[in-house]
Amino acid sequence: MGEFVESREEILSLELSRDERLVAATLSGGSNTNIWIYDFVRGVREPFTTSTDIDRDPIWSPSGGSIAYVSRRLGQQTSLSGLRR
Questions:
Q1: How many angstroms separate the CA atoms of 49 and 33, rounded?
Q2: What are the residues whose beta carbons fall under 8 Å from the beta carbon of 1, sequence distance 6 or more?
Q3: Per residue in 14-57, pLDDT tens?
Q4: Which of the ends of the chain has fewer CB neighbours closer than 10 A, N or C?
């Protein structure tokens, strides 16, 4: 299995997919916080969000096809966002 977290990152939240193959994680590293997807089968992780602000607390949809998460942009109110995988 590949490395999930680099030495400069901190795990803030984890959400396991319904089929238990993927985990969505809030990782904080430096000045930004983003969501990453770790694939247990392939042993790799990929960025789900790439904001310079804060994206956190992912929750999988029941179908596993999308993720809802909390997003906070500089100068804006915190909002609920969602993206398809």
A1: 9
A2: 40, 43
A3: 999 999 999 999 999 877 899 999 999 999 999 999 988 889 99
A4: N
C-alpha–C-alpha distance, residues 36 and 56, integer Å: 10
CB 8, CB 31: distance < 8 Å: no
Rg (CA), the chain: 12
Beta strands in 1-85 (DSSP E): 10-16, 22-29, 32-39, 44-47, 54-60, 66-72, 79-84
pTM attached to this predicted model: 0.81
